[in-house]
């Protein structure tokens, strides 16, 4: 879900060429959820192999990672760990997905495939199998990943703060509250996207934390307070009556956590102090980032032998990548 800051913040258009030779910390769960939601049959059924195992996430992960590598981007995937005990959004999401699953099955029975596709996307959930499969694929491709102790977005932000990554790639704004200096949204997505009955243009955009704070005339601590008022994964829905603009006005006026939340009705089991503390000092872990070369045989064993992907398509993608890497090495020498 994430924090809804769309009305307050905006970024500058960027392309993959702007990320050349840069390390990008990727919110793995955010992307895997996208793949599972979007890569489906017309009736909403996810892609599966001959053993009835879902492979939508592997399709998305493989080809998007190849696209990033072809552009000279160096991706590091960060996986979520154990959420804090007060992350109440988990129970809410389970309820929403269970209801969507029921509606999907009803739509299939009625042969209403438009409705079925819509409900199927809302029923998406990430299982331990999907996570383990994703890590096996990344191992075979020589792509590093990090297991976060808690929120993956917090760990992504930590990599940027430590200057081990240039930016975070995620659709959610939460990484800004965790202190990431740069967030790129819609990375690797360019073109028209259907929203309701209309099509809109979607392009990658870069949001820079310092620029956002300057424009909003607040500090980073105050941005966290705005986020808490609007609603986070720890207090879904936020404080009643406070959308982004009204929340910003209150924080500008009151400034401190104590004064802000003394003036509103707080009806959550978690306290504002707990949420603020988590965004300010989230759990992180030691890590090592090592990039390797794709193991072609391991990739084909996993994708083709184990999960029935087309060997020709998998090989062609690896061949293109190898050619691109040769060009990139020549370009790097020329730049130096």
Word description of this protein:
The protein has 336 residues and is an alpha/beta fold. It has two domains: 1-215, Rossmann fold, CATH 3.40.50.1010; 217-282, 5' to 3' exonuclease, C-terminal subdomain (DNA polymerase, domain 1). The chain is 49% helix and 11% strand. A seven-stranded mixed beta sheet has the order 1-9-6-5-2-3-4, with helices on both faces. A two-stranded antiparallel sheet has the order 7-8. It starts with 11 loop residues before the first strand and ends with a helix.
Summarize the structure.
With about 325 residues, this protein is α/β, with parallel strands linked by helices. About 50% of the residues lie in helices and about 10% in strands.
Terminal Cα span: 43 Å
| Main sheet makeup | 7 strands, mixed
State the CATH superfamily name of the largest domain.
5'-nuclease
**Gross geometry:** globular
Looking at this protein, list some descriptive labels:
single chain; 336 residues; alpha/beta; Rossmann fold; DNA polymerase, domain 1
Element layout with pairings:
Blueprint: E1 12-13, E2 23-27, H1 28-38, H2 56-70, E3 74-79, H3 89-109, H4 113-122, H5 128-141, E4 145-147, H6 152-161, E5 167-169, H7 174-177, E6 182-185, E7 191-195, E8 198-202, E9 205-208, H8 209-216, H9 220-230, H10 244-254, H11 257-262, H12 272-280, H13 296-306, H14 311-335
Parallel strand pairs: 2-3, 2-5, 3-4, 5-6
Antiparallel strand pairs: 1-9, 6-9, 7-8
Helix pairs in contact: 1-2, 2-5, 2-14, 3-4, 5-13, 9-10, 9-12, 13-14
């Amino acid at each position: 879900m994430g924090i809804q800051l769309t009305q307050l913040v905006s970024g500058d258009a960027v392309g993959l060429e702007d990320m050349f030779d840069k390390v990008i910390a990727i919110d793995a769960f955010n992307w895997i959820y996208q793949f599972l939601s979007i890569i489906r049959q017309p009736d909403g059924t996810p892609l599966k192999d001959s053993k009835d195992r879902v492979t939508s996430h592997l399709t998305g992960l493989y080809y998007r990672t190849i696209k990033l590598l072809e552009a000279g981007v160096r991706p590091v995937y960060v996986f979520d760990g154990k959420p804090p005990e007060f992350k109440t959004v988990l129970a809410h999401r389970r309820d929403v997905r269970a209801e969507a699953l029921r509606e999907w099955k009803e739509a299939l029975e009625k042969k209403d495939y438009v409705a079925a596709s819509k409900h199927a996307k809302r029923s998406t959930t990430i299982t331990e199998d999907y996570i383990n499969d994703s890590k096996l694929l990344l191992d075979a491709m020589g792509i590093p990943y990090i297991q976060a102790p808690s929120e993956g977005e917090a760990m992504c932000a930590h990599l940027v703060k430590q200057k081990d990554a240039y930016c975070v790639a995620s659709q959610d704004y939460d990484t800004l509250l965790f202190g990431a200096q740069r967030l790129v949204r819609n990375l690797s997505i360019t073109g028209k996207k259907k929203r309701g009955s209309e099509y809109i243009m979607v392009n990658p955009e870069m949001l820079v934390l310092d620029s956002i704070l300057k424009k909003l005339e607040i500090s980073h601590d105050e941005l966290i307070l705005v986020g808490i008022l609007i609603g986070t994964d720890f207090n879904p829905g936020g404080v009643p009556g406070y959308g982004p603009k009204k929340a910003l006005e209150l924080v500008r006026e009151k400034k401190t956590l104590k004064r802000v939340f003394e003036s509103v009705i707080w009806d959550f089991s978690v306290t504002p102090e707990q949420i603020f503390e988590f965004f300010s000092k989230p759990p992180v872990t030691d890590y090592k980032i090592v990039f390797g070369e794709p193991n072609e045989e391991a990739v084909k064993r996993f994708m083709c032998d184990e999960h029935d992907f087309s060997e020709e398509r998998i090989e062609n993608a690896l061949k293109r990548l190898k050619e691109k890497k040769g060009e990139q090495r020549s370009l790097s020498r020329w730049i130096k």
